[in-house]
Amino acid sequence: MIGCDCNAGLSNTGRPGCVPIQGIVSSLILVPLKDNTGAVNGIDLSIALPVWNDLINEVDASKRWFPLPSFENVELPKADSQFEEASSGRMAFLRQGKRSFTGELWAEDSSPTFLGKLQKSRCVDFGLYIVDVNGNLVGSEVDGFLYPIPVDNPSWNPVFMFATDATVQKITLGFDFERLFDESTMYMITPDEAGIDFTTLSGLIDVLFTNGVGAGTFDIVDFDAKLEYGTAVNKIVYTGALALTDWSLYNVTTSTLIGNPTLVAEGPDGSYTLTFGVQATGQEIRVEVSRDGYDGETIITLP
Amino acid sequence: MIGDIAFIIEDLVNQIDNTIDGTFNAPEGITEYCNTKWARKGKTVTDSSDNEFLITAIEYDDNITSDSLTIPFPALDGLTYLPKPFFISGTKLATNREWTIAGKDVTEKTPIIWLLETIRERKFGRESVYDRESEVRLFFLDETNVRNFYTEDHRREVVFPMEKLINTFIATVSDNRKFKTIEDYTVRTFSRFGVEQDNGMIKNILDANLSGAELILTLTKYKENCKVC
Fold it and tell me: What's the predicted TM-score (pTM) here?
């Protein structure tokens, strides 16, 4: 319960002509509440707004934004407030009811693979920004920062729903917002202010590595790269990462950054050969995906 | 954007992604695609270097055989640009006139996406999150060969690519969150586009030989942010 300000009476109730209001919730952007240093994640409104694509592609996952696909049939019901009622009928406010969320991810956004990724969120203290159908970003504005709205993460409950004669396959997501969240702190950043329609943001795709081997004179690694999505037999291959800047290499044994490879070759689709400066026998090389929109790494031992 | 349904739909048409991504298969002399969208035999496409190619054969959603129209005759590979749809709205008479005077070269003004007027719209008050619900009839048309095509040819060479263009339009609307998700719509196909009688199409509506499909749907748009003036 928010305490009363004893020095003030009722609040002034006038309002200007154009007050932006939220549209229907389209999607959510998950953000860890704190990064690995313990600093709270939020948008500093006193300086230029961030480059949004950088937040999606942030190397440090504890600072990264994780946009979810668009939801259907979103509802955000609020439970009744709790009061103590005396036998005379007099009531005393105890606490506001919790705010819940339910929404459905349909069709291609409802794969069991994606379900697994959603389920992992339960173990992290995180919040979320709401994105409405007009592309506005809604968060909690406190002291000049727009913070993600905290989620009661143990309540996070993605459920897979099979298709029926009348319904498509879907994932139903339900959760509660953090009980003490003050909804009067919600403010938005509009697409005009941000320079981007927030409904267009999409999250990183994980890249999985197999068959990694060192080759050449300690200056080549070969591997296959696939995505987690696809069929049991044929996973979708990760193709087209042919720019030198699509990859980054690090010598784990000597704790030395190698940087981008000097040559990248792909053939057949999803099978890559990266060439880099000569290292030494037996050293471990970490191969990292550094292409926008993708994330993944593996360690390969040189011969 | 002007808040009139014709301009709203024109905006959606302009948002249609007219690119397809292919890989040139040198031994077979074809370019392989996962989705050929509304590409069809006889049409001209361009690559990312603006080189022009004439499609000489197509296996839908598989591959395209093309002739380069640009010296020194490069192969069609990578991002490929299909002809952008030509949007027009109006009644039959007005559209025929405006489309006719838009240019002499039919290939420059096809495929057509024609929004047929009149349009019935339902508007919503301040209590609703919806702005408007529009009942629209859109015709997706492309030129056809009445002299040499049998009905099967019309359907394979023109109607099917136009149905693919409808799918791409629907996907464009679905990706735009300012519109309510489209759950169902009606498509009516015709091997010849014209005035219909019991014995078939007897007269062209537009001054060209066209085939294609009609899309009938209800488009619901959400209200947008107010402007501080």
Answer: 0.83
